[in-house]
Amino acid sequence: MGDSSQTIVVAGGSLAGHTVVTELERHGFAGRIIWVRGREGTAPYSRPALSKELIQGKVTAETIRLPVPQPYGPRTRIMDGAVCARLDPHADRVLVTRTDLENRVVGREDRAGPDEQWISFDALFVCTGTHARVPGAFAGLPGVHSLRTLADAERIKERLAVRPRTVVVGAGLVGSEMAASLRSCGLPVELIVQGRLPMEAVFGAELGRFCLEQHHANGVTTRLGTTVTGLSAAGPRGPVTLTYDDGRQSTADMVVLGLGAVTSCDWLDGCGLDLSDGLGCDEAPRTARPNILAAGDVANWRHPLFGHRMRVEHWSNASAQARHAVESWLAGQEGRRPPAFADVPYFWSDQYGLKYQMVGHARGHDEVRVEEAGTGGYPFVTYLREGRVVAAAGVNAPRAVMRTKA
């Protein structure tokens, strides 16, 4: 498949990038694949396990590695500890560097340093995902952690041996999962909820209230409607002082930030592509340069089923969209019209032995229906817009959720 003279560059080493490379190998791509896997310098792994099973000690770093073709094709080159630093706006080539992006020389369009090289491509798959949102004033403080990578999770795990009093800042998916996992380890945990309820931005008020009740039932203390305005550390092992928007303060041995994520596409600045929220794509998902496609957390594409643009930061979407991106590129090579990516978004979250699941996209819903489904009488919620079901979520209700997806 493909011309042996062709070169495909895959930017990003998480699930989406892994899936693109695997799919190209599976289809027998005859050209070169250059996989720029990023700064982590590690083989791909299951990211959802970080805030749950890994923190709780149920799995290890080795057991969450993703399966890979063995061996990779002889024309596949893996570049660990390297990133795509810039896309040439006038040609199909990327600058790959092993140096810190913050320290690179800006404005050199044609010259590369000793740790840099320009790589020309026939197709570029952008799978660079997101990185943890960390306010500049909080970055690098002793005892303050974010959770996005395996290294982040292992640093947090190292601290658990001293049973630290922990404050989790932010109550979205990662924050709520971290609070639940730390409590499952028997640690004292306080959860700072910036909004009214944990996970309300994802599930709405109905499941948000249920989530809050579960945190309280399992011994987590909470501060609702509270923002952390300042953090300061007494020293490498000293307590962290938190200052809140009401002027109050508290201390903790460890602080975990769950403040969301930022798309990792700043290296595309100035190349003429839509970067308003991630990397803008059509339904295929191709960018304004048809030989540049995106998949995973970074992709912002128009969903043909829901009728609007969306960017989905979920594990199942990353693999499905990456497979589709490869199919779209193959269709273009064969002169076929690339198919639209129309998978229904799906994600899950495990907390306190309960499984939260959601399908669809609830944005813009104007009606909510709550009932009980599954065992245990847990809530099942459907979200409607103009009388049409656009999403559903439930707790320990897999059949009801999957039936709605279909």
From TrEMBL:
Residue ranges constituting the Reductase C-terminal domain according to the UniProt record: 346-405
InterPro entries: FAD-oxidoreductase/Apoptosis (IPR050446), FAD/NAD-bd_sf (IPR036188), FAD/NAD-binding_dom (IPR023753), FAD/NAD-linked_Rdtase_dimer_sf (IPR016156), Reductase_C (IPR028202)
Pfam families, per the entry: Pyr_redox_2, Reductase_C
Cofactor(s) for this UniProt protein: FAD
The FAD/NAD(P)-binding domain, residue ranges: 7-322
Gene3D superfamilies registered for this protein in UniProt: 3.30.390.30, FAD/NAD(P)-binding domain (3.50.50.60)
Keyword Flavoprotein: yes
Keyword annotations: FAD, Flavoprotein, Oxidoreductase
Protein name: NAD(P)/FAD-dependent oxidoreductase
Species the sequence originates in: Streptosporangium algeriense
